[in-house]
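**Sequence, structure tokens**
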Amino acid sequence: MNRRSFFKELARSLTETGKEVIYPLFEDDIEKIERAADLLQGISWYPVDHLNMGYGEQMINGRLICFLFDGKRLTACSKECPDCHEMAHWIAYDHRLTCPICEKSFSFQEEKGSLNLLAYSVKNERQKWWVGLPDKGVLSDA
């Protein structure tokens, strides 16, 4: 090994060692920042029970939440129509939620529609899916 290769390998090795030593320190700080951001936004995270492929519904923290799961990606939204407050109906053959009163609908395949359902944040952490719901009394939930 020539001198240039030696110093190049030494620098790479020291960089990798530094990353391994410092990463756990930053990991804790990142988690603290994420918790602070959730607190400021008024979001609490709740675990999602077992998910099946496709469409599903779960009652989480007193709210009926709709889920569409494709094995890798999870989409979560409210089932309540924001205009008339009626529960939307799932139309399985069309992969669409439809309000029976307003006749507005939202397509999960196209990710658009006239029914503007409240979307919720989701994350996959520690081999489990979590949904972020607004805390009670937060204006965005009114």
